[in-house]
Amino acid sequence: MDYIRDGAEIYRRSFATIRAESDLSGLPEDVAGVVVRMIHACGMTDLPADIRFDATVVDAARGALQRGAPILCDAKMVASGVTRSRLPADNQVICLLDDPATPRLATELGTTRSAAAVELWRDRIEGAVVAVGNAPTTLFHLLGRLDEGWPKPAAIVGLPVGFIGAAESKDELARNPRGAPFITLLGRRGGSAMTVAALNALADPRE
Amino acid sequence: MDYIRDGAEIYRRSFATIRAESDLSGLPEDVAGVVVRMIHACGMTDLPADIRFDATVVDAARGALQRGAPILCDAKMVASGVTRSRLPADNQVICLLDDPATPRLATELGTTRSAAAVELWRDRIEGAVVAVGNAPTTLFHLLGRLDEGWPKPAAIVGLPVGFIGAAESKDELARNPRGAPFITLLGRRGGSAMTVAALNALADPRE
Fold first, then answer.
1. A65 domain residue, yes or no
2. Which intervals hold domain Cobalamin biosynthesis precorrin-8X methylmutase CobH/CbiC (chains A, B) (predicted)?
3. Which domain holds residue B61?
4. FRET pair for A88, CA 20 to 30 Å: which of A62, A72, A110, B76?
5. What does the pLDDT read at residue A136?
6. How many domains are contained in chain A?
């Protein structure tokens, strides 16, 4: 079988293909860098049309990480995928879904475990980078708490996936990000792989 | 904000939406169950047209897991995402990408680390469930070793993603699966989230 075995060459050709085939013209250069990595993670060059963002999101997230901010993730797969060597300050990557307090909070609040775990972000969210790559209820719950006056994260990567609430939660984020710089992908698409790609790009501009 | 907070209801409506909107008519019932979970993980109902499979794949993978077979994964995100409580025999979920031997093997073989890690599967592959959710070179390298007479895995979940080699490696798997029951998605799409969804469905038929 004839195939390219040189990892660096695979990366180079992959990113060249993505830049040749996707319409990045509506995106600032730094946001385009993030979207290119998201495309790389899912194989779909049509993402840009559905991307919504605040123009400060890359500076805000990257600056926060350089100052040592933690990354708060909704799913273990997201936390697992972040490339530690790209993090500028050996940042903590935190997922509290399996915290012993989460199931009780979910019952008390009448919501999912994914949303209940947001409660445990309360003391860490100020200036943190938040990454939602799985559960729409996480994003909805977070936005509700921000409405109630929680401190603001440095940035929100809002990419929950699926059929019930995903599109709606991302519409809500894009319409009213509660003053937090954000990036999202409208519609049903999203997920942990794309979220990890966005985080890895925000952490380090190198392709 | 008005949204559904009941996790069980979210699942029920999600799977109902997927079954209403996707054309599963060309798939045996057990394979359709796997594809429904893959759709759930990516938000795209058009996967079925690109799915290729061996009709025995679900029985083969599920039987192997019930007999205690390990799952060999190409990426840590894949290993991280498998829901341990769905595994029928507390099966090992193994990713050897970070094994100390992998970088040296990659240099010796002139290939990627992802492909080199396949070498470390040699003594565990017979009857194992193999899951490739990231690197096309992993799938190519595995197929090459099977051509050379390696023992056969019980099943191959072949879902590498991307622009260089992904479509080609999955075409190769679908054209000639080397006697291994398989499931794949033609084209550039794939990735760790979809692969985890397939594994979780193979491990346990419950939606």
1. yes
2. 9-203
3. 51-199
4. B76
5. 98
6. 1
* pLDDT value for A207: 81
* pLDDT tens track for A12-37: 999 999 999 999 999 999 999 999 99
CATH assignment at residue B153: 3.40.50.10230
**Has A141 been annotated as catalytic?**
no
Which position among A37, A40, A141, A170 bears the catalytic label? A40
A107 vs B: CB within 8 A: no
Closest residue of B to A191, CA-based? B42
Residues 57-96 of chain B with CB under 8 A from chain A are: 76-77, 79-81
pLDDT at residue number B207: 81
What are B79's two structure tokens? 């290993």
Mean pLDDT computed over A118-130: 98
The whole-number mean pLDDT for each consecutive block of 10 residues of chain B, a chain of 207 residues, reads 95 98 98 98 98 98 98 97 97 97 97 98 98 98 98 98 98 98 98 98 93
Q: Are the C-beta atoms of residues A11 and B172 closer than 8 Å to each other?
A: no
**Does A11 map to a domain?**
no
